[in-house]
Amino acid sequence: MTPAHDANAALTRRDLQHIWHPCTQMHDHEQVPLVPIVRGEGVWLIDADGRRYLDGISSWWTNLFGHANPRIAAGLAEQARTLEHVIFAGFTHPPAIELAEQLVQITPAGLDKVFFADNGSAAVEVALKMSFHYWLNQGHGEKTRFIALSGSYHGETLGALSVSDVALYRKTYAPLLLTPILAPSPDAYEGEPGESPEQTAARRLEAMRALLERHAHETCAVIVEPLVQCAGGMRMYHPSYLTGLRALCDQYQVHFIADEIAVGFGRTGTMFACEQAQVAPDFMCLSKGLTGGTLPLSAVLTTEHVYAAFYAEYSAGKAFLHSHSYTGNPLACRAALETLAIFRDEPVLERNRALSAHLAKALAPLRAHPHVADVRQHGMIAAVELVADKTTRRPFPAAERRGMHVYLHGLQHGALLRPLGNIVYFMPPYVITEAQIDQLVQVASDGITLAVKA
């Protein structure tokens, strides 16, 4: 074994001695390699052995402009020499002020107030609590429930998990969770034969209307991931659903929460997915790409109208009750400012449109694969649905873990692909080249061929 291999193995041994990893059955690592990454460089992750992995999933959908991005790194270094952190209750600082100002400028009109948190799940918690507390302050304490979509995922803290529809999580933690009202997803993949995505959206809107007719009196808000239900299987739907949902929320007087944590900041082809439906939600949750993938930070944007429901004398007891020690952290805010500066100074969305078109072209041959039921895409998010039977769309049994075969093949061939069950997806950094897209798709295609034979 070479010294480099010794370094890889040594780091793995040290890790497994003490660290419990997320979203992982640790027993898997008796066979599945743990990859010690020591350096990042653009779209590449580099392990202690010097092997390079093309990051096809932006390290859990966070990295927009490449690992160790020099512009963001320089901003962080400067900020670290100036102010690393300060309590955000009773204090403020320029990076947070500037970031709030810029977020208000670039998000849909009417979202004029910004509440900072630490991560995506925390942002969802904030939005849920803020919606409930708004109605309480307005004298509607009977509004205590939330409507979410089937197949939804909004995070893994208890509130966020309560409005998620992931069977494994709900079965395990059911005694701790609120019970959401589930509306059928407008997922185009679940459309009736011959039905267009827009027609599926219209049909599902009628189902949402029926739920609101029955439950609006007890409902605080409807929460959705606009255009793409990411962790729920990269389920994609037509923008008209959002247009109709905004109208229904107005009609039935419930809030509209847009969870743009994964789909915001250019992922779906526009800066924010809601733009494609020309709607503004009552709450918009942002995280992941907000800092370009460098530091944890999230933000919940809401309206002056919501803010006013909390603005009162202290004795009124209407203040919003939520805090984190690292709220508005200056380092994270500075990273976010540098990220937004890249969007401002470079033709990011224009470049993404060209990359998205190339990704679509590269994936097109997979549509003919005998075990591929669907190839779908919204901007810089694409997914390939593997099935046991293409005609009936019968899925592979989950226990067979076909996606794991694709993942392992990717690692062996220099690519980070982390399928969601039997769904192989692509969510690369925006600095990827067309040649690297071709490389990533080729590795995935070969992995799929091997996986369906396993």
UniProtKB/TrEMBL annotation:
EC code: 2.6.1.62
Q: Which UniProt keywords apply?
A: Aminotransferase, Biotin biosynthesis, Cytoplasm, Pyridoxal phosphate, S-adenosyl-L-methionine, Transferase
**Which residues are recorded as binding pyridoxal 5'-phosphate?**
120-121, 259, 324-325
Positions contributing to substrate binding: 60, 153, 288, 323, 418
Tell me where it resides: Cytoplasm
| Pathway stated in the Swiss-Prot or TrEMBL entry | Cofactor biosynthesis; biotin biosynthesis; 7,8-diaminononanoate from 8-amino-7-oxononanoate (SAM route): step 1/1
- Residues carrying N6-(pyridoxal phosphate)lysine: 288
Tell me one GO molecular function of this protein: adenosylmethionine-8-amino-7-oxononanoate transaminase activity
Report the catalytic activity.
(8S)-8-amino-7-oxononanoate + S-adenosyl-L-methionine = S-adenosyl-4-methylsulfanyl-2-oxobutanoate + (7R,8S)-7,8-diammoniononanoate
Using the UniProt record, give the first listed, main subcellular location. cytoplasm
> What Pfam family does this protein match (any one)?
Aminotran_3
PROSITE patterns for the chain = AA_TRANSFER_CLASS_3
**InterPro entries documented for this protein:** Aminotrans_3, Aminotrans_3_PPA_site, BioA, PyrdxlP-dep_Trfase, PyrdxlP-dep_Trfase_major, PyrdxlP-dep_Trfase_small
Q: Which domain of life is it from?
A: Bacteria
| Cofactor(s) required, per the database record | pyridoxal 5'-phosphate
Site annotation Participates in the substrate recognition with KAPA and in a stacking interaction with the adenine ring of SAM: residues: 23
SUPFAM superfamilies in the cross-refs: PLP-dependent transferases (SSF53383)
Family named by the database record: Belongs to the class-III pyridoxal-phosphate-dependent aminotransferase family. BioA subfamily.
What HAMAP family has UniProt attached to this entry? BioA (MF_00834)
Q: What does this protein do?
A: Catalyzes the transfer of the alpha-amino group from S-adenosyl-L-methionine (SAM) to 7-keto-8-aminopelargonic acid (KAPA) to form 7,8-diaminopelargonic acid (DAPA). It is the only aminotransferase known to utilize SAM as an amino donor.
| Assembly mode | Homodimer.
Name of the protein described by the UniProt record: Adenosylmethionine-8-amino-7-oxononanoate aminotransferase
Native source organism of the sequence: Dyella acidiphila
